Amino acid sequence: MSLLPLAPRTLRTLPKPQYLSRFRPIPRTHTRAITSKASTTPQPDAISLHRLEATQRAHHKRRTIYSASGFLAGMVCIWVTATSIDLPPPSKLDSSRPSPSLSSSSPVTILPPPSSKPTPEQEELIPTGTSTIPHFPKTIPFSPTPSSTTTPEEPYQLLGLGIRTVSFLHIQVYVLGIYISPSSIPTLQSSLLQLAAPNGASTLVAHEKDALKAMLLDPARSEEIWSAILQNPEIKSLVRIVPTRNTDFHHLRDAWVRSLTARAQKNREEFGDEKFGSAMGEFKALFNRGSVPKGRELLLSRDESGKLGVWYEDGEKGSQKLGEVADERISRGIWLGYLAGANVSSEEARRSVVEGVMRFVERPVGSVEGMVSL
């Protein structure tokens, strides 16, 4: 029990509560007036809306054009790829025997296996570099008048060959080979030797051959050299063309006509007369025909006078003569389109021909007839 004294207890009165009057005015306090500022963004007018819509339409139109162009380019690439790749030949499976089975008494003949040694005809084939037309013959027996008994066929020899391609995709159009008559080889050889060695040398040394090769590949010098050689009345030659895909005469003709027209515009003094214009008309009329299937042979011949002859193998009647053009400027212009200038129809063929004629200058005149090797 605690012994501390207790505090005295006292009673205190609470203060009387004060009641606020209902209608007692509330004192004013400083309040910040909230005012809404008027919007300063200008409302677009009709002209601005029209321009905005036109900009959006142009944007969507450009996207549509780009998408369509990409789609078309993709389809073209797919088509080019699909048509450029050669499919393997179909394999032939064994079929059921149509005749009754052989009896035990039936004679059986065992054939020897085929010889792997190539035939002489196969040894005379030159690879072209494409699987569509894999080979070209090394020699072509040709006579401008095959029905004549007084003009025998000559074995024209291959100088060089190449593939004609178009566009940046290098689409193959045809394989071409340039052939020369054996009797024309000494004349061609003499012309080249006189050009490279005017002192009358019978053969060329290494630096002279390099100089001659550079001249034959030079755009300006090659034009002069081959033009002079082709105007020699003793040079006879052929251009053999075999398409690698189905084409037509108009397509082939248009390429030659463009080349002849461009050459005539550069040299109006030589090609600006009416006779050349009429010769161009005759040349166009020769090719006013239909299609040329893949693998068919087209020959362009050039005789001693420069007359152009056109021969076509239709697959039924053999090689048939379509016609000729007497003006030598037509055939010379076509030949120069393959041999000379800055933009030849086939750079591969031009270089192959140059390599072929360089073999002529390695031997004395007259010793290479019948000995051209590729």
UniProtKB/TrEMBL annotation:
Residues 155-354 form the Chalcone isomerase domain. InterPro entries: Chalcone_isomerase, Chalcone_isomerase_3-sand, Chalcone_isomerase_sf. Residues 89-153 are annotated as: Disordered. Transmembrane segments: none annotated. One of its GO terms (molecular function) is intramolecular lyase activity. Residues 92-109 have a biased composition (Low complexity). This is Chalcone isomerase domain-containing protein. The lineage of its organism: Eukaryota, Fungi, Dikarya, Ascomycota, Pezizomycotina.
